[in-house]
């Protein structure tokens, strides 16, 4: 095999791509991974949207802004008197950038450790050849590669409002929302989904007056209704102004402000004038420069690469994973698919269970869930039992000073199998892992109830909710 020939060529080094590359290398294959993302100095920045302008930097800013909020409004409750708290936004954003770079460098180290050959540039199909598929790398690095197998992991990009392109100065995607130079006095957010609520929360905590406009009539329609109602109440109390069922007019932007005319849910004409506008109305698959037509790679009407249940495309030995294919646009879903594809290429049986993929919204309180909601179970006619437990009755939550929210468990009425778990409250993102594990093994609420949980911990709320399914909670 020549130096430009590989068993596997992975296009894209986001969560799906870099993980697929590493797992394939672990299985003894020769692997190349191509990624074009650059840092501020023009160097490679693998990790995709998640590491560079998504999961990682947003969590860094959420953490920093939460500290700021705690110092301003909650330290006094703990007997800590703080005076003259001030914000150095450039340092906060700088820390966020440092966290991103640490993750970029970590991936490059992992490539080196696992003997994955990295190419810094864009990868494109150049045809089918003896030995597999010709892939052309252009950009910082130029190369002509041949891959026996190709894994497409090119991810997604933010969806623009028609007629309102991102300029990342006034009209912001998630990228621009992470790099605002000064706290805006008034901030508008289009879209009350995960990104909109997280970014809105960051800038509200830092002092912005935040208004969220959402076209859907229901708040967080994909979330369990009971959780969504609690979340709406809490976010509104915190200061987010949330308007549902709106219809947008023509947005106009100048160097100093953005004007958003809209019709509210009652049909009345309204106008929102803000300093900055974040648009978070979903994401679209990214296949720019991939040159799919040259090899007949099939895309669907929305631009996703068409795959089967094993992530195989219509082309032999060409696979696709992550945001560029069907299913939830979640980093951990992409990782699971990346591992599964590498293992399938290696002759093993990869595993991805779409029914046990957890979801998280990193607001305060956090929201997490896995499995079916109560409204989905009602719609399907499945008989179920429900049990919930409030953090108000949890000793650790009281000690933390954060007793907002609850844990809710839904189980089959006859078999007690856990069908869904929904959490709003402190550290919900961590607590959901126990639910995922139980559901992956098709466990029962009784299984959670019989497991000894350390005291005092937030996880005891999971045990108590499981006991509540059988109407025998001990602490509520």
From TrEMBL:
Keywords: Cytoplasm, FAD, Flavoprotein, NAD, Nucleotide-binding, Oxidoreductase, Redox-active center. This is Dihydrolipoyl dehydrogenase. Residues 6-338 form the FAD/NAD(P)-binding domain. The keyword Cytoplasm applies. One of its GO terms (cellular component) is cytoplasm. Binds 1 FAD per subunit. Its cofactor is FAD. Residues 357-466 form the Pyridine nucleotide-disulphide oxidoreductase dimerisation domain. GO terms for biological process: 2-oxoglutarate metabolic process. The active site is a redox-active disulfide bond. The active site is at residue 455. Disulfide bonds join 50-55. It catalyses: N(6)-[(R)-dihydrolipoyl]-L-lysyl-[protein] + NAD(+) = N(6)-[(R)-lipoyl]-L-lysyl-[protein] + NADH + H(+). GO terms for molecular function: dihydrolipoyl dehydrogenase (NADH) activity; flavin adenine dinucleotide binding. Its EC number is 1.8.1.4. FAD binds at residues 59, 123, 154-156, 323, 329-332. It is an enzyme of class 1 (oxidoreductase).
């Amino acid at each position: 095999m020549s130096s430009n020939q590989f068993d596997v060529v992975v296009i894209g080094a986001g969560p799906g791509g870099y993980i697929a590359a590493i797992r394939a290398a672990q299985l003894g294959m020769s692997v190349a991974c191509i990624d074009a993302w650059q840092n501020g100095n023009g160097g490679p920045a693998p990790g995709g949207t998640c590491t560079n302008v998504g999961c990682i930097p947003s969590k860094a800013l959420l953490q920093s802004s939460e500290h700021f909020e705690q110092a301003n409004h909650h330290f006094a409750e703990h007997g800590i008197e703080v005076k003259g708290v001030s914000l150095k936004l450039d340092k906060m954003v700088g820390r966020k950038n440092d966290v991103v770079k640490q993750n970029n460098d970590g991936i490059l180290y992992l490539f080196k450790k696992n003997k994955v050959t990295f190419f810094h540039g864009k990868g494109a199909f150049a045809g089918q050849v003896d030995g597999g598929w010709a892939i052309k790398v252009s950009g910082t690095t130029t190369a002509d590669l041949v891959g026996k197998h190709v894994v497409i992991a090119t991810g997604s990009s933010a969806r623009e409002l028609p007629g309102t392109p991102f300029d990342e100065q006034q009209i912001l995607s998630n990228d621009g929302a992470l790099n605002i130079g000064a706290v805006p006095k008034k901030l508008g957010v289009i879209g009350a989904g995960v990104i909109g609520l997280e970014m809105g929360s960051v800038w509200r905590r830092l002092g912005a007056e935040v208004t969220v406009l959402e076209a859907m009539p229901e708040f967080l329609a994909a979330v369990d209704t009971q959780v969504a109602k609690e979340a709406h109440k809490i976010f509104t109390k915190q200061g987010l102004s949330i308007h549902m069922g709106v219809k947008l007019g023509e947005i106009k932007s100048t160097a100093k402000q953005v004007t958003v005319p809209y019709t509210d849910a009652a049909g009345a004409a309204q106008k929102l004038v803000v300093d900055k506008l974040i648009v978070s109305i979903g994401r679209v698959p990214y296949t720019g420069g991939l040159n799919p037509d040259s090899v007949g790679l099939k895309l669907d009407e929305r631009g996703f690469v068409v795959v089967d249940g094993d992530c195989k495309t219509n082309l032999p030995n060409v696979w696709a994973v992550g945001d560029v294919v069907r299913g939830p646009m979640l980093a951990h879903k992409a990782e699971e698919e990346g591992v599964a594809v590498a293992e399938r290429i290696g002759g093993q049986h990869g595993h991805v269970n779409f029914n046990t993929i957890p979801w998280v919204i990193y607001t305060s309180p956090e929201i997490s869930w896995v499995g079916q909601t109560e409204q989905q179970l009602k719609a399907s006619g499945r008989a179920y039992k429900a049990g919930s437990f409030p953090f108000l009755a949890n000793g650790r939550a009281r000690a933390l000073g954060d007793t907002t929210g609850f844990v809710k468990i839904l189980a089959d009425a006859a078999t007690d199998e856990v069908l869904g778990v929904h959490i709003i409250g402190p550290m919900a993102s961590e607590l959901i892992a126990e639910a995922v594990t139980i559901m992956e093994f098709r466990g029962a609420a009784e299984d959670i109830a019989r497991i000894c949980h350390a005291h005092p911990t937030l996880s005891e709320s999971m045990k108590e909710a499981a006991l509540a399914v059988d109407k025998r909670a001990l602490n509520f």
